[in-house]
Amino acid sequence: MLLGAGTLGSAVLLGAVWTNALGVGDRFESLEARIARFIAGPVPERSTLPTVVITPAPVTPFPTIAPDPTIIASGEPEISPTPAPTPTPTPVRTAVDVSILTAADAQQMFSSQVLKDWCSPAGVQMVLAILGHADTSERFQRDLAGRIGEWESWADSHNGGWGPAAMALALADYGAIGYEIHAYDTRDQALHGSARAIAETGAPAILLTWRGAHTWVMTGYRAEADPRYFTDAKVSGTYILDPWYPRISSIWGPSDPPGTFQDEAEMVRNYLKWKRPEGLYPDRDGRFIALIPTVVVAPLP
Description:
Layout: H1 5-19, H2 24-40, E1 51-53, E2 96-99, H3 103-109, H4 119-130, H5 138-145, H6 164-173, E3 180-184, H7 187-201, E4 205-209, E5 214-223, E6 235-241, E7 248-249, E8 253-254, E9 260-263, H8 264-270, E10 288-292
Parallel strand pairs: 1-3
Antiparallel strand pairs: 2-5, 3-10, 4-5, 4-10, 5-6, 6-9, 7-8
């Protein structure tokens, strides 16, 4: 029996989606997302988490505390000296290579985005998995993505769906509290702030890459000095879980396996100032955006 033209076309399309021949599956996913957005209605104009614009700290050497000298006046009764405070050791300025995950951990905690526009739920899922609040299954990612209506807001994403505030709210709902949206004037400041937060909390950061269109989970870094103690410590690269892996982008090229060290050239190429086509975001436009952990989990020694 011959199939009708419509039925045959549907069968061909479904077959193409299943195999993703010629990228038809990706286009179908985009169409599916647009239809879901239309059915959901207007983007809610509700209050959400603020973007914190970070003013760079002045570059200062690490302070040391010198004990006060004991002064005994000549001819006066002897005064019992006050115990001097213990001097704070001065950190040694040396290169550091830090990751909160081993290579095996990076593989275990990785979750590829199920759909091509699900980098945010996949990134949130990986952070939750690292912190012990989720698994890395496709089922969990689908459940998480299905809850976006609880967190989305126009101020966070004019298109609706996932913005950095929705990501932070989702993290908090699953137990990873304290993530803040920070906006930095320069890439060096953003990487320094993210590295310092990772070292102080033991939790991963999230970088909004590709001008704010994509999500990278940052689990470590290399720097020429410890960013906790040196405000001018330059971060030369980061350890990244990229939910786009193992896909290839026509714009950004192939993605890298989980835990890959992204050197300075790759950070310059991928981590760019926020610039979204759907409208203005006054606190984010022209700045480098990161979701920063503030709650201590397992600080580095």
